[in-house]
């Protein structure tokens, strides 16, 4: 913005006109609204302070017990793991959904349709009880028993055998349910992101000889991230809150379960419910900070901002006074 | 081909591009209706014609961004997009198509730079990712190429910090980084402000002088006259007229060429 010295010298210009001093428009409505809000806020604080049921001391004494802190850690770990798995699954599903092969895109569509239709708490409850469906979950060649019977052999054709009651319980069951469900939502978010990228980008990449996979990974997805990140932040926050649904499994080490357990045990329901609210507020705020930095990272090359390093370099060279 | 008669040309006579009756339709719309063209190595061919005449589509067929429906197209003696075996055409796999495209540089009307990468990163991307060139070697070569197109100062700028002309020059450097045998230009100056056209044409002129084989779809008649070896006029999916640019521009033989040139000159 630096102007060349001398060219706009005040001495050569006529005296500047008098500054405008006008009476601003009054907004009485705003004052009324402010007064109403102030009264409501005072009533709210009055309630918090005077109602003995809140038991603030009790709450503060009990919301940081080792079990609760472990619960907060479990909740955060569960959120992160479920989101990581959900995002990876979502990317795979989104790419499948955009495949020209109708069987591939159709199966992705079916998956998304199924898992978006089921409430998470129902899904979690169902997965937690899969142990009742089969005692053991095996991975192998389909119809192996029938084939072996046909040839008259006494054998099976299975590689991996897991105890149903072990895998579909506690943390694993909860993680599985949340991640499977999240994958379906993320697939749609990622698809929207991929489709938001100008098709000319993929064209330029393939004209340079980049393979399909590299075009997707290095050119399309990084640009799609700008569209994908903000809703993914919302999904992460929603996921943090949905970990409280793990009570349907149940996952007993999780935050909400622990706080409720204290409430039930001591009959101090309200203080521990308030403690839950405060804990989720704090954890969500933490995630919002992370989201801010991620969005900044992936908006490179958008808008006309220079990076700090570039600006410094330009200033040092003394070129381009303004941008 | 018999070897009895010695070739009048001492150099390789394989044309860089050979098109035989190339046809392309989108649904029921026939965009190309039998294009025959030969482009020799080192030749600069400018393609002009009204919009919708199929010039951009033809260009995109040459590096197989569009599949042709009939005819044959060779680049440097190799069939584009197909392999002929036992009298039958087999589609090439994605990997082989990508390999063919390495040797063909393309510059787009809308630049299509990668906005999340700096100018240098744009130039370095394909050599490192496709050819496996070492990063420092690719960067050194990238800086060289950006200097060649006059952008030594803007190596670390993102595309949106560059003017249209600068972006298009980065796009040219990006295509050159793959050391192509053939460069395709799809209306490279049509999206530019008038005062920025010259800088891009200067770079293209330099490239032509260095002996690059170029096919340029353009509306810049001055460039076609001064730099082009051959001018091709296309209309309604066919080549109406072609020849020495000065001759075609000053003395068009065909009525459709005359009508078009009277509007643009």
Automatic annotation (TrEMBL), chain A:
The keyword Cell membrane applies. It comes from the Bacteria. Keywords: Amino-acid transport, Cell membrane, Membrane, Transmembrane, Transmembrane helix, Transport. Pfam families: BPD_transp_1. One of its GO terms (molecular function) is transmembrane transporter activity. It is found in: Cell membrane. GO terms for biological process: amino acid transport. GO terms for cellular component: ATP-binding cassette (ABC) transporter complex. InterPro entries: AA_ABC_transptr_permease_3TM, ArtM/GltK/GlnP/TcyL/YhdX-like, MetI-like, MetI-like_sf. It is a multi-pass membrane protein. The chain crosses the membrane at residues 31-54, 74-96, 117-137, 157-181, 269-294. Signal peptide: none annotated. Residues 72-289 form the ABC transmembrane type-1 domain. Belongs to the binding-protein-dependent transport system permease family. This is Amino acid ABC transporter membrane protein, PAAT family. It comes from Geodermatophilus ruber.
TrEMBL record, chain B:
Its EC number is 7.4.2.1. It comes from the Bacteria. Transmembrane segments: none annotated. Residues 17-261 form the ABC transporter domain. One of its GO terms (molecular function) is ATP binding. Keywords: ATP-binding, Nucleotide-binding, Transport. It catalyses: a polar amino acid(out) + ATP + H2O = a polar amino acid(in) + ADP + phosphate + H(+). Gene3D superfamilies: P-loop containing nucleotide triphosphate hydrolases. It is an enzyme of class 7 (translocase). Pfam families: ABC_tran (PF00005). Belongs to the ABC transporter superfamily. This is ABC-type polar-amino-acid transporter. It comes from Geodermatophilus ruber.
């Amino acid at each position: 913005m630096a102007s060349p010295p001398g060219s706009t010298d005040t001495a050569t210009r006529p005296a500047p006109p008098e500054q405008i001093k006008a009476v601003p428009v009054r907004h009485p409505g705003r004052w009324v609204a402010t007064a109403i809000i102030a009264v409501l806020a005072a009533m709210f604080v009055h309630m918090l302070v005077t109602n003995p049921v809140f038991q603030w001391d009790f709450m503060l004494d009990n919301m940081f017990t080792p079990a609760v802190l472990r619960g907060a850690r479990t909740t955060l770990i569960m959120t992160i793991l479920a989101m990581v798995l959900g995002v990876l699954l979502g990317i795979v599903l989104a790419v499948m959904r955009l495949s020209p092969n109708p069987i591939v895109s159709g199966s992705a569509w079916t998956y998304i349709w199924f898992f978006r239709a089921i409430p998470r708490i129902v899904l979690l409850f169902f997965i937690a009880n899969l142990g009742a469906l089969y005692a053991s979950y095996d991975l192998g060649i389909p119809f192996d028993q029938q084939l072996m019977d046909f040839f008259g052999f006494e054998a099976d054709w299975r590689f991996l055998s897991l105890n149903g009651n072990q895998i579909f319980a506690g943390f694993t069951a909860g993680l599985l349910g949340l991640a499977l469900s999240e994958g379906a939502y993320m697939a749609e978010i990622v698809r929207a992101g991929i489709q938001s990228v100008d098709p000319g980008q993929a064209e330029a990449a393939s004209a340079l000889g980049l393979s399909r996979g590299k075009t997707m990974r290095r050119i399309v997805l990084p640009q799609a991230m700008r569209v994908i990140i903000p809703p993914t932040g919302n999904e992460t926050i929603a996921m943090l809150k949905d970990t409280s649904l793990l009570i349907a499994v149940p996952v007993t080490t999780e935050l909400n379960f622990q706080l409720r357990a204290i409430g039930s045990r001591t009959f101090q329901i309200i203080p521990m419910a308030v403690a839950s609210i405060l804990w989720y507020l704090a954890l969500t705020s933490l995630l919002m900070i992370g989201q801010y930095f991620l969005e900044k990272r992936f908006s490179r090359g958008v808008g006309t901002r220079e990076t700090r390093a570039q600006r410094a370099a330009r200033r040092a060279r003394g070129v381009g006074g303004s941008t | 081909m018999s070897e009895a008669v010695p070739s009048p040309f001492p150099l390789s006579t394989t044309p860089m591009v050979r098109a035989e009756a190339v046809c392309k339709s989108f649904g029921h719309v026939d965009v190309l209706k039998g294009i025959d063209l030969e482009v020799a190595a080192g030749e600069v061919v400018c393609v002009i014609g009204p919009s919708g005449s199929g010039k951009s589509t033809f260009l995109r067929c040459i590096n197989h961004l569009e599949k042709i429906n009939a005819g044959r197209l060779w680049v440097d003696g190799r069939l584009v997009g197909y392999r002929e075996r036992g009298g039958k055409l087999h589609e090439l796999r994605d990997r082989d198509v990508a390999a063919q495209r390495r040797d063909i540089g393309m510059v787009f009307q809308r630049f299509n730079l990668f906005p999340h990468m700096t100018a240098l990163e744009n130039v370095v991307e394909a050599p490192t990712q496709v050819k496996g060139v070492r990063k420092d070697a690719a960067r050194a070569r990238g800086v060289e190429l950006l200097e060649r197109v006059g952008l030594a100062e803007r190596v670390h700028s993102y595309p949106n910090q560059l003017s249209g002309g600068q972006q298009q020059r980065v796009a040219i450097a990006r295509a050159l980084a793959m050391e192509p045998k053939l460069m395709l230009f799809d209306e490279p100056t049509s999206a530019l402000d008038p005062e920025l056209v010259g800088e891009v044409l200067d770079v293209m002129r330099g490239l032509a002088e260095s002996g690059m084989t170029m096919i340029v779809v353009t509306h810049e008649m001055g460039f076609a006259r001064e730099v082009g070896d051959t001018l091709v006029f296309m209309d309604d999916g066919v080549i109406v007229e072609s020849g020495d640019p000065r001759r075609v521009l000053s003395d068009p033989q065909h009525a459709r060429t005359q009508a078009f040139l009277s509007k643009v000159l």
